Amino acid sequence: MAVLTLHSLPLQSVNARSNRHRCDYGGRRRLTVVSHQQELCSEFERIKIDKSALKIEEASSDSELWATSLLRVRSFYDFKSTFAIQDHKKYLAEREFEALKERVAGTKKGEKVSCINATLPLSQAKSFPEELCSSCKFSHDGEDRVVVGTLDLNQCLSLPNEITGMKPKGIGGDFARAYLSNVCVAHECQRNGLGSLLVEKSKLVAEDWGISDLYVHVAVDNAPAKNLYMKCGFVYESEEAAWQARFLDRPRRLLLWMGVPNSYNW
Fold this sequence. Notes:
- GO terms for molecular function: acyltransferase activity, transferring groups other than amino-acyl groups.
- By secondary structure, the chain is an alpha+beta fold.
- It is built from six helices and ten strands, in the order βββααβαβββαβαβαβ.
């Protein structure tokens, strides 16, 4: 399962062995995974997590956003060289952190972004790799927690270099549309249903915002991500032109749509 979508990262980003692509979102650089190869099931030991200790909530502090940025770098990039790797990871995380803070702060008119995270208490992460616990840790209400999954919910007209959703129609309808992006789950924590839980939480937040139509982009060759989204209720709406994918040097993308229940009918 991997999901990261550029702006609407499909759950494909869960696999760090993907072809990565950076895209500009609102004038900022943003992490993205544009294709997903086969899951490397034998490479990572899957950890069964205690869901009773799991929290799926909107990020509320800079320390949590920093931990989120480190998880995204860990998930979206495949570092083949060890030369100055820590400095490079720090640089990428700092860039994503600044961009994420700016997006969540809502400084760009007409756009609203929420970072939604899945977190576990550090005390429940004894079986996790030390590197994951140390890099993706933050403190909340006196408790140390670890970010193990994340996504962004973006209320906006469109995402850069991505297909634009066609629903809803009518005056003001554009502001009732939202996109998922930067979806990822720590490699070791996949297959615990975290991707589905993150999507379900995003639907609740979208409903509170008055969103009626939710979108996500996914690479055509990313079967795990497509399966995940469709199980969550997304359906096919359109697909990227082959020439555009070639121009952007990435696999062609599908645009998936879901109606958000109980929201204002445009």
